[in-house]
């Protein structure tokens, strides 16, 4: 980082004279989300409901720059993550990922136990669609975890095994990390070491062994604590938590998610 570009290397994609300016837009989004959060009071009836909306920024604008984008809008879509806690202490997750450049529209529904690792519970469903408008433009599947720790996926009337989970590692969905990492944040900082976790990536691909750990703290553009996720077959990603316990930046190889608005108590 430097004074002219106050971004940590893990989400610094402000390349030279890039226009639109990645750093300026990221900082503006963070500022706007802070103002919106301060204006929205959290009442008791939202304690069991959380919603985070993220803007998707491309890490490499040249590949996404389009002739029709005359205003140079540095955005390729949005991610909406909603969670509702049931009376039996199970969290219902609804995730919508929309990429306007690829035409990808991904919707996930799953359930997690009310624990810090958010273990997957029961069954789940995924609806995937793209803008091809042919017979291959949609795909739907559901899944479940058997008592033998097998992951079963049902696709087009057939059931296949997606892998077997090592019971020594908790299994969750990558999108539940928006709650897992804040819950483990203080522990990871205090340990100075990482913890193991298994992921079902987009409720389809098993990533059996991953490491979560503390990365760094920054004070600019706003006070944040960063955490890393590494694993076999997983591209590295970096997750930044603000003082209120919200994941405000998620940076991976090709895109960066920046918090745009939120509802509900992050705890």
Condensed summary:
The chain is mostly beta strands and 267 residues long. The chain has two helices and 15 strands. It has one domain.
Describe this structure in words.
This protein has helices spanning 22-39, 177-191, and strands at residues 49-58, 77-85, 90-99, 104-113, 120-129, 138-145, 150-155, 158-164, 171-173, 195-201, 205-218, 224-231, 234-241, 247-251, 255-263. The protein has 267 residues and is mainly beta. The chain has one domain. The protein has a 15-stranded mixed sheet. The model is unreliable at 41-45 (pLDDT under 50).
Shape: globular
Q: What's the number of structural domains?
A: 1
Count of extended strands: 15
Query: How many H/I helices?
Result: 2
For the biggest β-sheet, the strand order reads 8-7-6-5-4-3-2-1-15-14-13-12-11-10-9
Order of helices and strands: HEEEEEEEEEHEEEEEE
User: How big is the Rg?
Assistant: 19 Å
Major sheet: size, sense and barrel closure? 15 strands, mixed
Low-confidence sequence ranges = 41-45
């Amino acid at each position: 980082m430097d004074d002219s570009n106050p971004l940590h290397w893990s989400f610094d994609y402000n390349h030279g004279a890039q226009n639109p300016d990645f750093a300026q837009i990221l900082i503006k989004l963070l500022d706007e989300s802070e103002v919106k959060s301060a204006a929205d009071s959290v009442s008791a009836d939202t304690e069991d409901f959380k919603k985070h909306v993220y803007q998707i920024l491309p890490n490499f604008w040249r590949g996404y720059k389009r002739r029709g984008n005359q205003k140079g809008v540095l955005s390729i879509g949005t991610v909406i993550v909603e969670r509702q806690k049931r009376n039996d202490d199970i969290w219902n997750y609804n995730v919508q990922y929309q990429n306007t450049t690829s035409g990808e529209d991904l919707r996930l529904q799953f359930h997690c136990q009310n624990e810090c690792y958010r273990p997957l519970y029961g069954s789940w469903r995924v609806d995937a669609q793209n803008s091809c408008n042919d017979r291959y433009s949609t795909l739907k599947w559901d899944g479940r975890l058997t008592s033998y720790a097998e992951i079963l996926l049902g696709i087009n009337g057939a059931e296949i095994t997606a892998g077997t989970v090592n019971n020594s590692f908790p299994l969750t969905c990558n999108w539940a990390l928006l709650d897992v990492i804040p819950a483990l944040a203080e522990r990871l900082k205090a340990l100075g070491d990482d913890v193991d976790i298994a992921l079902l990536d987009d409720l389809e691909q098993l990533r059996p062994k991953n490491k979560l750990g503390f990365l760094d703290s920054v004070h600019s553009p706003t006070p944040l604590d960063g955490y890393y996720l590494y694993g076999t077959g997983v591209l590295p990603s970096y997750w930044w938590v603000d003082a209120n316990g919200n994941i405000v930046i998620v940076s991976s190889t090709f895109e960066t998610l920046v918090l745009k608005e939120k509802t509900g108590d992050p705890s």
